[in-house]
């Protein structure tokens, strides 16, 4: 905590100085007109990283879990059926949250390392001829396994089955970093969090709701108040807030969106790909494998790296933290001990990524992994050189 | 927003520099052992401002409204009856929240400016011979009216009726500033917020649960997940967190509790009384009245001041903000237009309070109120002089 | 130190949040091109608060004393004669600095409370028929006595005597707050400091040199290196710095000048007059006198208030600090014990000023001064009301 | 400027978060007793990194150049002779500063990359039988070449010649990072800067004066006022300051010294050696040479790396900055174009150092240097692994 090393956890990210400052504000009156003057355009601009023009965005003081809760309690009723796939810890937890709210969750269990099971979704939807399934849940970027799913294909499966269910997507670790096309993919509820692609401290759950989801709010019977989206959208439209807002985080979000839009979302996505690809080259140079089963599943915000048989990834992560003062992500749930994760989202640079790769190498070597020092670094360097920020810019 | 004037809203407060810094932290790994080393003792120390040794404290990323939701969803089941009194906007909103969660709320409506209706509570409880009432709700300090209620007397009423209901108390604008005796008063759920007595930014709902409330968690059927107190208490006990914590706010809370305990809670309470009393002297010198119907109801964190007939307090508050760059609180709900509020909690000093009083005088004079400039200031000065911080210290 | 009360010392001022942030920067490379891209236009823009288009500005890491040293060592030679008037502690110290550098200072001693002695200057210059006087020194705003001198009249006296001496002016506590017309007044060296009208932390001496002063640099024999203006101007012109610059302070200065120019210097000056006038009304209401001998000498950045016979102003200042946590300025030198000073420069607002006035009243009353509580506050309120920021804006 | 990459310039360093916060303070009254309560013990504690108990320390608002000026103007008179060696840009500039102050500097010119020329010093002193040399100047750590000189040997040479001259040492880029033994080495004036080993922003020149130097102050005739050490030492002893101090930087220095002493100066020095040695291993792995002519001359705060014939180090440094957003130091003066410098002082960690090494590799490869990617990283990793912070601690 007392060093200046970057963190390599898959969120919260290394907070840019500009956002550190934007978030740290003296108290001012959230009921004054200044609040609305900031908040209304922010809610509009937030639509861009979600890829929506038709949906509306709301900002809650909560972590991503609160965003999940917002999505379901505002649109569903006790006993409703939802279809979900489990392929990592976060898809698992969202399912658990649904069950705690009395929903009947049809779970498609997949291998951890796989993405959203398109065929299985399609089959389940096709079989649901009386349309008991009210919502399909999908985690866009499974932070636990470094897997990005094809949400567009989920939508296609739903359309193929001609199924009227809503589509809810967890984009907590993708939105703001990786392409997200809410309207094109027909997403009805999308959930993001301040501490990931928005590069802020934890504390805001950002939720976008399609017109269809908003219509569902009128009949949904699950109880909610703190996460009541009707209140929040109605207040937001008028530049107010239903209760006391976390004004510093919201000022930070304003600045974060400014940064993302100034850079251009396409550039932001390309940058994340570039940093991630360097890390993947390093993994390959180590002779190790990522958790994602196919290259097209690779996440650009987090890479989950399988450790060789006989090694314990939790020990590796703890060791790196204690010995080198660098935090990586451990394996969670089913993959505990089997993988460690390098988060590379937000304002991560190739220079910072190289220090993470180099540290991982030292820690693995120290613990007897069959690794050659510098090998992953060299592979990443080779990639970053050829695809440097400047090279990138010049060809843009 | 671009000046350095203090705010006089009844929370969020003027944030002390030390807490500005404590809250603003680079990202560090909340899953590392450092987190528990900070968090476990913090949860212990937090018991002191709540006045409990038997209860346990949990910290959620939310505003106070989330604390209310935590209190009821963890202990009650759909259709349960609760008894509540409405004597201001915040008691009203908590009732609304209960109703949205499908609870049957027996509402005792009181005049705004009155405190918790002890006799009415007693009668209602005595009449409830089959103990359908599962919980009694009481707002300790009604921020909308500047009224502090006698929670101990509520407990006595419950005991007099020999009623087994739980007692839930909103201490959002009192805990950390005014005396709160959770154990002595037999409170089962108490709710506080980071942005009031703890002098932090908005973002943490702090909830203490008695053993009885914790027992009720086992059978309560209201759905909850984000605000699930079992998860939070279990995690807290081990120094972890069920999801990503708002680590900056928690570091701020650690420092805030350090400050409160170093000053001594009795001294903190005495300081709030002293500042508040100066404001009340000013009101009296103006020939105006506070909303609180009896002096013993006066809150020490916020003073609500009735404006004379023919004047509109909302206009006054807007005018002061626009003309002098100073924020006061408007009247809410029933008392909209009829009162304005001077918040004086947190690190407010007599010097700062005097500038608020002086500004209110100018704004009132500008708008034609029958007020003598300097009169309230002089009355407050007289009181502060005789009871200055130093005098206070010397006689301590 | 642990409260949020404003300070009322005549600099350093209460630092605006925006400047707190601007000054606090991570290290970046001052030899990179970014430095020049910031610095070159800053040096240009700085000419405006100095009121010069012909002069050039340099920024040294030093306090104002370093600015004085810059002015003389770059333009004079050992044994040179300078003419100076002493009418307060700061004019005294500049004289002392000259003497330590081996200059022959012809001192015109004035009463403290008087301004620059125009007639005496004129007589001395007229008598200096062989033009041995190389420079005339004048303190524009004597911080020790709250006196603003008429620099234009000094120039007229010089011109009347047809004397070729240079004119050096200490504008440390005026530039950026009060009108300063370097070109119109024929000032050759003007000295300002970051911690006064620029509202920053102490650490930058800002010096403007006329073409005549710059010509004198070529022949001046006083040794200098750290404060060598030739190096600094040459480097500044190329966007570099002769040694390591205080980059955070310079970024702060960039933002400060942005703020001043956005508000408009005329508005800045009018604001300072308004705040100051309120303080002066309070002093009059107390039945006390300011140190400045004539109203036209009143400074708009600091008011020096004579205490009644039998009272000790140092005791008053210490008492206010210990009892109320508020800092005023003590009397210095000849006027030690006889006056206390209220600094009201920078981002001071009427609201803040009122708290200073109110605190002074309490402290004086506590110490037995024959003062009526609230009297000064009321007088200031009356003035501020009629001349509020908004009123000001509306008539602008 | 808009990334979070570390800087690798040899000062200012990457500022620790704790010091960022310590330096950023609201204004408080530097004439209040709090100032002395902080400042007096700070001046005492500062003696430790200087390695003195007999000397006294003063803190000026200036950069290191101001420290040089302090050393000579307080102890010497116009025309005095000083003996100095030139072996880099900073020794050169100090000589220039002396000459501008009218001193007669006997310069021993050495190759850049060599250290203090002990034999030449001895010969010159032995030849100076009438003791015209009043002071010997030596740069302990020549930042331009990455060379640490043996100051103890300079003292031995002086003693061998039985010469009474004073010994003045520039420790700007060593004190606080590398061992400095003022008393043992018989140093009379030692100069440090806030932005190097003290890890702060630029702005404080920290000077220690031996009793002998302090005695010389009484007769020295060079003019000085801003840098008058008598005023500063006298004020410091009483906890005051001769003019307005840079209070934020001084608060930062207080915290910095706390950090250094808590870690233990021996540990601080060992840490700097460890980080530096890793960088040197990388240079060796690249098949390149450092500027320092012998291994015992290697600096532990900065490594200057000779580029192969045909390459231009300035181009390399600019390229790395533009392409990868990382700042290294260029070659200065005689060695311009011939070397680039990696600064690794302050809170630099092995993890950060590896990112600098990796970046240098990419930039060199891009520009056609005959370098193998990852080779330097691997060499540094190997060293850091075997000498990690933890390993270090365990064997301590």
From TrEMBL, chains A, B, C, D:
Record's keyword annotation contains Lipid metabolism: no
Annotated organism of origin: Aquisalimonas asiatica
Protein name per its UniProtKB record: Serine-glyoxylate aminotransferase apoenzyme
A GO BP annotation: glycine biosynthetic process, by transamination of glyoxylate
NCBIfam families hit by this protein: AspGlyoxATaseBhcA
Domain Aminotransferase class V as annotated: residue spans: 50-326
Binding locations of substrate: 341
Alphabetically ordered keywords of this record: Aminotransferase, Pyridoxal phosphate, Transferase
Cofactor: pyridoxal 5'-phosphate
PROSITE patterns reported in the protein's UniProt record: AA_TRANSFER_CLASS_5
Entry annotated with the keyword Nucleotide-binding: no
UniProt modified residues of type N6-(pyridoxal phosphate)lysine: 196
